[in-house]
Backbone:
């Protein structure tokens, strides 16, 4: 499961009581290059909090350094190029920011795009 703590910080939680190690990997960690080590709780839940930039992201849990586990409680899941399942997460732009700007007219005034 993914819990949005603030506009950019998210907490990832997964129940894997038999695991000896769990890492959070995804597009926002450059997959294994910057994997985030999760912390085991006495109840068998693993958790990690991190900032995730706005946009669409894929992620997975790497269990015991070998098994890739999707989070079916996330925003969605899809098959990746290797035939496995990855979880999806969409993080919206912070409130008040216009994600798309068009410059129009001779005065070059910035006009936000209508949603």
Residues:
């Amino acid at each position: 499961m993914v819990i949005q703590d603030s506009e950019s910080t998210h907490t990832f939680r997964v129940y894997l009581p038999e695991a000896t190690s769990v890492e959070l990997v995804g597009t926002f960690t450059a997959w294994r290059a910057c994997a985030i080590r999760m912390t085991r709780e006495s109840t068998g839940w693993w958790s990690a909090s991190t900032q995730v930039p706005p946009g669409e992201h894929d992620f997975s849990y790497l269990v015991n350094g070998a098994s890739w586990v999707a989070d079916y409680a996330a925003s969605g899941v899809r098959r990746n190029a290797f035939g496995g399942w990855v979880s999806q997460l969409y993080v919206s732009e912070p409130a008040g920011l216009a994600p798309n700007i068009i410059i129009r007219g001779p005065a070059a005034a910035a006009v936000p795009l209508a949603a």
User: Anything to note?
Assistant: Confidence is low (pLDDT under 50) at residues 99-115. The domain at 2-112 is CATH 2.60.40.10 (Immunoglobulin-like). The chain has one domain: 2-112. The radius of gyration is 18 Å.
